[in-house]
Amino acid sequence: MQLIVGNWKMHGRLASVALVEALVRAGPIPGARLLVCPPATLVARFAETARQSHVGIGAQDCHAEPEGAFTGDIAAEMLADAGATHVIVGHSERRTGHGETDPVVHAKAAAAYRAGLTPIVCVGETLAEREAGATLAILGRQLEGSLPGAGPLVVAYEPVWAIGTGRTPTPAEVAEVHGFIAARVPAGTPVLYGGSVRPDNARALLAVPNVGGALVGGASLTPRDFLAIASAAPGSAP
Ligand code: PGA
Hints:
Layout: E1 2-7, H1 17-26, E2 32-37, H2 40-50, E3 55-59, H3 76-82, E4 86-89, H4 92-97, H5 102-114, E5 118-123, H6 127-131, H7 135-146, E6 154-157, H8 171-182, E7 191-194, H9 199-206, E8 213-216, H10 223-231
Parallel strand pairs: 1-2, 1-8, 2-3, 3-4, 4-5, 5-6, 6-7, 7-8
């Protein structure tokens, strides 16, 4: 069973609940679990709509502390209270746009555990790092610094240069990285691939050894595309 996660980023309004309703109406897809991660403003509304369905709801970021004087921040406990089951931490847009270092990501993942959420820890190299042949060294450092201790875990490999660009690594490149990551996380940890996953490339990417699902940005905002990607998971094909 693969995990197909929609990362809505800073998109969506209350009316977007119609997209979640569409996913719920479409019914379960054998071979794929669906998780939608909308902006924090929509987590409670979406969780209410998806309750008792095959669609899960997660969040995109959390603060490391459970509460306090942190204007504008949101605690993992608040996300759990709103109905989230997972939270993305360490997305490259947070690492670069908000200066999040590996220790910060580690603290956020630990906060997710404290709140009973499963962290989806993102790692990935830049284009310069890949061209310098440093991909595995960078990923090794990110994994060592970001992964929390024991607990349910999802890891997402997202090459920074593949996010929102339409470019993806080759299946062989994905296989190399996913094998590397699988050897460094507890057995059974889903390792998702993310970065320009679309209906037309999902089947090839999801079939790569050690790929346990996808983290989907742009294409997750269209239920038809998101469902097509989920239907491309091995074991989902009719
Ligand atoms: P994308 O984004 O699918 O739009 O490339 C993926 C992500 O950043 O999670």
